[in-house]
Write a structure and sequence with these properties.
34% helix, Protein N-acetyltransferase, RimJ/RimL family, acyltransferase activity, transferring groups other than amino-acyl groups, Acyl_CoA_acyltransferase, GNAT_dom, single chain, globular, 155 residues, alpha+beta, seven-stranded mixed sheet, transferase, Aminopeptidase
């Protein structure tokens, strides 16, 4: 099973809105409130225009299976991801992380570390980061997962 990433475009705004308001996604998010459509579209268009944000849709064949976003902070890429409810529990989270790591190695040479921030109650996301080889650090409000990158494909 392999997936590929495609950078999000205006055509993806409704799909991302659907995903962001899935019940389990809201429960796992640090802000668990439902997101209004206007708020989502404002955030989306700001994010896709920002040089410090990249949003990708993951595909298995032609089927969108989830999203993964990075916010660039100096030499770090902070991850946010979610998997479509129909594809959860099948290893797609690990594949999204692997695909993102390859994308970062190829096109974002300044990124030396990927960071994920996960709620204590989000056990499935913790497993995903652990299976992907991330180092764990417990904080008061969450668990941080780190992975240092090397072996850049564009060197």
């Amino acid at each position: 099973m392999t997936i590929y990433l495609k950078e999000a475009t205006v055509e993806d705004v409704d799909l991302l809105f659907e995903w962001v308001n899935e019940k389990l996604v809201r429960k796992s998010a640090f802000n668990s409130n439902t997101i209004a459509y206007g708020e989502h579209t404002e955030w989306f268009f700001h994010s896709v225009e920002s040089p410090n944000c990249r949003i990708f849709i993951g595909y298995d064949d032609d089927n969108p299976i989830g999203q993964i976003r990075i916010d660039l902070e100096d030499d770090k890429a902070v991850i946010d991801y979610s998997v479509d409810s129909h594809y959860r529990g099948k290893g797609y989270g690990v594949l999204l992380l692997e695909a993102l790591e390859n994308e970062v190695r190829y096109s974002l040479k300044q990124v030396k570390q990927i960071v994920g921030k996960v709620k204590f109650s989000n056990i499935s996301s913790q497993r995903t980061f652990n299976r992907s080889g991330y180092i764990t650090e417990n904080k008061n409000e969450c668990i941080l997962f780190y992975k240092k990158l090397g072996g850049y494909l564009n060197e």
